[in-house]
Amino acid sequence: DPFSKDPFRLPVFRINSKKPFNAEPPIELLTDSYITPNELFYVRNHLPVPEIDPDSHRISVDLGDSSIQLSLEDLKTKFKPVTITTTIQCAGNRRQEMSDFKTVGLSWGPCAIGTARWTGARVRDILLSAGFDPDDKTIKHVHFNGFDDDITNTSYGASIPKQKAMSLDGDVIIAYKMNGVDIPRDHGYPVRAIVPGYVGARNVKWLRQITVGSDESTSHWQMNDYKAFSPSTTFETANYKKAPSIQEMPVISAISVPKPGSIIDPEDGMVEVKGYAWSGGGRDIMRVDVSADGGNTWQEASLTKDDPDADDSAHCWAWTLWTAEVPVAAGKVEIICKAIDSANNCQPEWIGPIWNLRGFLTNAWHRVNVTVEN
Ligand code: MTE
Ligand code: MO
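ok -> structure tokens follow
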């Protein structure tokens, strides 16, 4: 069993797949704290968790005509450490809502998302120290390869635009700490790429190699996965070559309290609703609206954000937690939330127009059905 060396996980996880391990924390715990505890951070593995000896592990930076090997010690001592607080979200978060229709993929609820403080070295600094010429116009992508292999000995890999990797405030780092401690094995021990504001899939765990190229990574996960299609595209007509890779993520929000199916005893006709909101690309959340009457009236939520002095970033990479007091009538009630980001992007009302056969990027208004007592 190639998965026999996988680490221990908390039993509270909602497991979507055991081998490889894919699990999300329960919704009622997700927004309990601004920073997601490491042991509650969702796990999305495509392959067995590799066993890596931190002393002998080397990250190979291959630039075609030159190459350097970095030990963990090199990474920690030769580059200025930076700490970046970012939310990471899987492209399949909330896929379950699309599965009324035909989709392929793990049936994620709304908790394939989490926020952590990551400490590491900037990819920009690493590439420059390896002799990379940022003005080389032939290079357009930076590739990351992991240490986790499949049966054909191909490892997990992904790439991001050079622009993002080399930008001073793109905050792409090779992290060796997650919330101040060694990164847990499930999350990439000893080192992983952190690509803030981008889809989870580019945050390559168990990093063993950084390369550059004129094209995107040829990895299966860059070429034939993590691409969205029109609602009318079928498995027969899906053209993966033509479809662009998902990179920056759209605006999303979700309700964490109350839980679907709850029976609520309101206080003075009001119910407290909580949740998260996030947008990709470093965009902040400007507003969250909550309704319990089908969208006739909306309450503005109060927002909790990251401490702006906590790290070196000029952007808002991390989520906003929110709370709203919403008037409710007795009976069956649907509570709805929607967020607006700093580019005034809003969420679509329902999943119909954004449905895609892979079930990616579910960011429609989030709806929770409850019963309100008299
Ligand atoms: N990196 C490697 N090496 N192998 C993987 O399977 N999964 C990716 C990404 N990096 C993956 C990986 C996907 S799809 C996501 S959503 C995130 O890691 C999940 O990170 P987490 O498990 O720390 O939450
Ligand atoms: Mo993912």
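The chain has two domains: 14-223, 252-372.
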